[in-house]
Amino acid sequence: MDKAEKAKPAEQDGENASRRDGTAWELLGDFTTTTRLLPISAISMCIGIVAAFLALALLRLIGLFTNLFYFGRWSTAMISPVGNHLGIYGVLVPIGGALIIGVMARYGSERIRGHGIPEAIEAILINGSRVEPKVAILKPISSGISIGSGGPFGAEGPIIMTGGAFGSMIGTSKKSAAASAR
Asked: pLDDT by residue (tens digit) across 11-39?
């Protein structure tokens, strides 16, 4: 290989040129990995498994509050509030749920407001992937009350926020950098 071929930019000769002259690390930039990836991946898989069980617990909590508010029974079975016997007073159930959540937000954490996805993105971008531990407790409870009392929300956002809060607690306990916590 003569000097003229070596001097060709990597864009002209493709990927092989970067391998020949040793600039592959410069071209890959952030896409390189080290052996540190393995323990981070293992921790991430464990967090994912725990988050799946937390999601299941949230769904059970929604079933519990639906049964308590509309039927007055202690059960975690997922049931529609359509068959309740409250009559016209069934309209007051979501209002009562909203009042309970308002008290929780006022005296607990205002991070429980909203449906979870914007709050999770804010925690990642602005707060360096840090979520308060009390949010990991209050968010599923407030979401269970809200959805169980007939609030117009879904469980996806709170599941994301709860899993993110749990992952953040693990990340902060390990004293990891914000980039690793993401």
From this structure: 444 454 444 555 555 566 666 777 888 88
- For the chain, the three-class secondary structure string (H helix, E strand, C coil) is CCHHHHCCCHHHHCHHHHHHCCCHHHHHHHHCCCCCHHHHHHHHHHHHHHHHHHHHHHHHHHHHHHHHHHHCCCCCCCCCHHHCCCHHHHHHHHHHHHHHHHHHHHHCCHHHCCCCHHHHHHHHHCCCCCCCHHHHHHHHHHHHHHHHCCCCCCCHHHHHHHHHHHHHHHHHHCCCCHHHHC
Low-confidence ranges of the chain (pLDDT < 50): 3-4, 6-14, 16-19
Between CA 78 and CA 142 the distance in angstroms is 17
pTM: 0.68
Q: Can you give the residue ranges of every domain in the chain?
A: 37-181
| Residue among 47, 44, 61 nearest 158 (CA) | 61
